[in-house]
Amino acid sequence: MSTIYVKSPTRIDLAGGTLDMWPLYSFVGGAKTINGAINIWTHVKLTPSLNQEVSFYLKDLNLDQSFLNLEDFFLNANPSFELIKQTLKLFTIPLGFRLETSSESPVGGGLGGSSSLVISILKAFSKWTHQFENLTVNEWALLAHNIEARMLMTPTGTQDYFPPLTGGLSCLNYDDFGVKQISLNPAQWPLSKNGFLVDTGKSHHSGLNNFDVLSRAVKKDSVVLNALKGISEVSEQMYLNFESHNVSELLPIWFEKEYEYRLQLSPSFASHEILKLKAICTEYPKVYLKILGAGGGGCVLIWTQELKKSVLIERLNQEGFKTLEIDWVLSAHT
Known about the structure:
Elements: E1 4-15, H1 24-27, E2 31-48, E3 54-58, E4 63-67, H2 70-74, H3 82-88, E5 97-103, H4 113-129, H5 137-152, H6 162-166, E6 169-175, E7 178-184, H7 191-194, E8 195-199, H8 206-218, H9 222-240, H10 247-265, H11 272-281, E9 288-291, E10 299-303, H12 306-318, E11 322-324
Parallel strand pairs: 3-5
Antiparallel strand pairs: 1-2, 2-5, 2-6, 3-4, 6-7, 8-10, 8-11, 9-10
């Protein structure tokens, strides 16, 4: 069989993050998470062989290693391989292979990079072995979610898996029956025109931040529960008004409220770098900041007027931040 190439987009979340983690959305009576696939990709190259040897090249870690066979690989204790090991254990793999992986996302960037990579690996081995070909999008997302939770040994949400599976801009509606993906019109949000990412240079730790929130919510911490309800209300309002023509006027309200509620969840959602960025943004009218993922570092989304975008990018680059141009990915099919 010839070499298989797969790439999957990462995502930005616009509202309702953290509530995608069970049972938090149950605590607030259901919730919506709004996110979209962006053109920062994870890549997988899978080359089947005619012998039993398996080899792996993890470009982001500059790690290249070979094993006599798959059983030998599973015995290896290097934690850098854990995500791949947990994924490959699902498949019946007939022969050896070489697997090469890479990600365009900054490490700990809050863009769902590891989740996108899991999806890319699953896609590649499914194409090769013809296993799991008939799974629904929800079943793929649940499968990847459980793989990553097993690897991280922490509670994880599910929003990160839908953008690399389907692409597009969507609302994920969480209720007692599970999750339903609802497509939204990305034309209302001209991302390449008004938005860009800023890499704070500090890696975030989503599992730790989310576990802190979950632990306090289970203990009925009123501050955390009220903040979760507030985040849920923001995402609900964003969804209800998404197709209206006054989105740009409502944006500062949504982002400011979400920012306030997120810091009420835990101060760890901010960082020195994020607070510095926030201070810079307040110097300019109509410049809005959105913490991505579980915060605490990683990337943030900046939204501003088209004419101010280049000026702001130049200012932030001078301040030592790295800026990233992005756009929506409308389809994740490869």
